[in-house]
Design a protein that fits this description.
4-stranded antiparallel β-sheet; 11 helices; 426 residues
């Protein structure tokens, strides 16, 4: 009786949570550029300094930097392509503030650390001297810093400060030695963000930028430093909204086909395996709900490759349930008791399922490590789906099935779809 009560409580709680949260989760799923549309910017690239040229390598590195910055803005799977010899096209899905995106994407190109070392003395009325004139010498640019090396820390008084790391320790040591006791200002374009004083010669490539910052101000400066400097200067030629490559009608048809296919699979599972098939179908539903939950919590973007990975993962989850139930039926046909068959079938199927899923995870990890854009998205969804499938369609369904078997509700072979005539004597 206790096991039956546990089974009912687990099922009711799971159904209640899914029914209550599913509408909000579905509304919160962020669709990709191919499903929802977004925002497109065309940049023209020019050298940062006179006499330099725009090379294919520098154009490619700039495009890669733009993609990283788009991801840091909270977008996922941005489309960044080079065109001709000096143009880069950027497409970002689900943009709500286009002006903010344009501003953020150009910020890294003009991040500089400047000093007044060697500059002309300010006029008598120093209050009217512009910051850019006062700090005229560029000492460091964004690319001099370790990628994502800036972070927010706290001093002994629990006041926010910024920890930074540079690539060239010797260069940084020379700069801080020369500017000891002087100010090293941080500029974004021609706007000064901060002008901290160099307190000591720094030889380990690490430093702290201190000041009367709020936590938000410290985070903003840290994020700006992490964006680094683009290899080329970018000039926006035009921007426009981009429509979804897969129209709304096609998307609705895709979702409709997926729902119909899922219902057919659930009916097949129930018809083939009776009550164990019902439990397996419930595991598939929980699996799908958890995947949507992960999408929302991790702020993933759903694209066409993601849908393909989603469908592939559901197919693998169905395979896991079929393998388990067939192993159980095989044990029953060999004359074992239902209890013994469930234990043996779960144990033998687990090894097979884990072997096949782990190899697929390895393939997905390789795709994620070496792929770009849509390939990364496909691999990430596939890996997440397999992990959730193991948790729900293996351990969770095994747990529910064992509860019913131990409670005595599943004790006849025909409840597993096995006829008495098919059972061999031990």
């Amino acid at each position: 009786m206790k096991r039956i009560a546990t089974f009912i409580i687990v099922v009711l709680v799971a159904v209640g949570i899914m029914a209550w949260s599913s509408p909000a989760l579905l509304d919160s799923v962020r669709l990709g550029l191919d499903l929802k549309g977004g925002f497109e910017i065309l940049y023209e690239a020019t050298p940062l300094e006179q006499g330099q040229k725009v090379t294919k390598q520098s154009l490619t590195r700039t495009a890669e930097s733009l993609e990283k910055r788009a991801n840091l803005l909270g977008t996922s799977e941005p489309e960044v392509t080079t065109e001709g010899t000096n143009r880069i096209r950027l497409k970002i899905a689900g943009v709500t503030n286009e002006a903010e995106v344009r501003k953020k994407m150009k910020e890294p190109a003009a991040l500089t650390f400047r000093s007044a070392d060697g500059c002309k003395a300010p006029a008598a009325d120093a209050a009217n001297v512009a910051d850019k004139d006062k700090y005229c010498k560029v000492e460091l640019v964004g690319s001099d810093f370790v990628e994502n090396g800036a972070s927010v820390g706290y001093n002994s008084l629990n006041q926010p400060l910024i920890d930074i790391k540079v690539k060239d320790k010797k260069k940084f040591a020379d700069v801080t030695k020369r500017l000891l006791g002087k100010q090293l200002a941080i500029f974004l374009d021609e706007t000064m963000l901060s002008d901290p004083t160099v307190q000591a010669e720094l030889t380990d490539g690490k430093a702290q930028i201190s000041g009367n910052y709020t936590l938000d101000e410290a985070k903003k400066i840290s994020d700006t430093i992490n964006l680094g400097a683009l290899p080329l200067k970018l000039t926006e030629k035009y921007s426009q909204s981009v429509g979804a490559t897969l129209g709304k009608q096609s998307l609705d048809k895709t979702i409709q086909a997926g729902i119909i296919g899922s219902i057919v699979i659930l009916i097949f599972m129930i018809a083939m395996y009776r009550l164990p098939g019902v439990i397996a179908s419930f595991g598939l539903i929980v699996h799908t709900w958890l995947l949507i939950l992960v999408f929302v919590w991790a702020d993933f973007t759903l694209t066409l490759p993601g849908i393909a990975a989603f469908i592939l993962g559901v197919g693998m989850a169905v395979d896991a349930n079929i393998i388990t139930n067939e192993r159980i039926r095989e044990e029953i046909r060999n004359g074992r008791s239902v209890m013994s068959s469930v234990k043996a079938g779960n144990k033998s199927s687990l090894r097979t399922i884990l072997d096949s899923n782990i190899t697929t995870i390895i393939v997905g990890a390789v795709m994620f490590a070496f792929g770009t854009g849509a390939v990364k998205g496909f691999a990430l969804v596939l890996i997440v789906e397999i992990v959730l499938s193991i948790l729900t369609n293996v351990y969770f369904t095994h747990y529910l099935l064992s509860l019913l078997v131990k409670a005595g509700l599943l004790k006849k072979p025909k409840q597993f779809g096995v006829k008495e005539s098919e059972i061999n004597a031990l």
